[in-house]
Structures are given as C-alpha cells and as structure tokens.
Fold:
Amino acid sequence: MDTDIMTIREVAEYLKLTEKTTYRLAADGTIPGFKVGGAWRFRRDDIEAWIDQKKAEPKGAQR
Structure:
C-alpha cells in the first residue's frame, strides 16, 4: 500500500491555508484526518477526494 501521509503543515501548504486554519478544519471534522500520538495526519487520497467533493457541491452549499 503506497499512500502518502501528510502533516498539518503539508496539508496547509497544499490547500494554501494557514496551519491554524487547517488544524481547526481537522479538529471539527471538516477535512478528513486522523491522529497518531496526538499529531494530525492526513492521507493525500482523502484530501484530494474531499477537494473533488467540495468542487461538486452546489455553490451555495460550500459553507
């Protein structure tokens, strides 16, 4: 299984967000992630699927 695992910093860079915003989105369940030893981790495939899902939503539903 060759899945890229990303850190908060990497996801923040990828999404062009601050680390603080990325942490908040992960903590409230907006973006898919999981904790390992108290540190957030993200599968690149999950983040890309989340982006595709957000792009497919009607414009008014993106809040």
Notes: The two ends are 34 Å apart (CA to CA).
